[in-house]
Every structure is written in C-alpha cells, then in structure tokens.
Amino acid sequence: MKIMDMIGANTGQSQEKDRKYMLLIISQGNWAYLQTIKYWAFPSKDYNRVLKINKGDRALVYLTISKGNKSNSIVAEIEFGSGVSEVIPRFLFDRIYPLRVPFQIKSIVENYVPFNIFIQRVQFIRNKRYWWVHFQGRSLIPISPSDYRIMATGLYSNIKI
Question: Is 32 domain-assigned?
C-alpha cells in the first residue's frame, strides 16, 4: 500500500473534503492508559471544540516526553469513531474529563518520530523559534490536510502496525 493511500489522500472526494485533521497532545503516561480504554476524554471547557469532531476524522498523537533522552514526538495516527458522548461523573477522572470520543488506532510507530523535524515544514506553527508556545494549554489543535500529510509521511516511515 502506498503512503499516500494510507494517509487518506485517495479516499474519495466527498469523504476527503469533509474530513478534519487534528493534532492531539498527550503525556506519555496518559497515552499508555488511552490505548487500553480506546476513547479520548476531554474536559468540559472543550465542549464546543469537541462537537466539531465527526466519525472518520483523523488525528496524529503528539506525545510530550519529560524524561530521558527522547524528545516530544509523533507516535500514532488515530481515527475517531462515533460522535461525542457525556458520562455521568462517578470517579474523579469522569468529573475532570466528562466528554468522550471513541477512536481506533490506525498505526503506532516503533521508533518515535521527533516533532522538531516538522517545525520548519508545517504551516500551523507561525513562530518557528518559540513553536512550543502554540501547544500550551491545548489538547486538540486543528491542522490543515497538507500539514497532516507532511507529518503522517514521517510517521509511516517508522510504522509498527
């Protein structure tokens, strides 16, 4: 399968036109947990942003790493399932993150793809010198299809599944 087919370049005009692309920001510990529960949890403050997620939208997972010699990286591609659901708060996690969106993991990389190789090539980061400021306080960043393809091509050169 060609890389451009894998990243959704040849999936049909209407589906491709309606599909949204995002960058999801998460810590290393939370990513391990989310791989087991298979849904993305959002706080209530992101309600309007989360409502824009539709079935079939795709996202790249940006992993923040604070330990060791690894840098912040793109580690996976996911595709969102059905729409947003809200849970009844029973546990602390449910109170903090009541909005849920199921997802399916499309691919996970074996060797993390360092994000710094994409900084100069993507358009959604305007200030290339202080690029990390663009991510602060955000868990979901919409990106253009061209930025998505640039990062997904780097991701698929290190694919695991």
Answer: yes
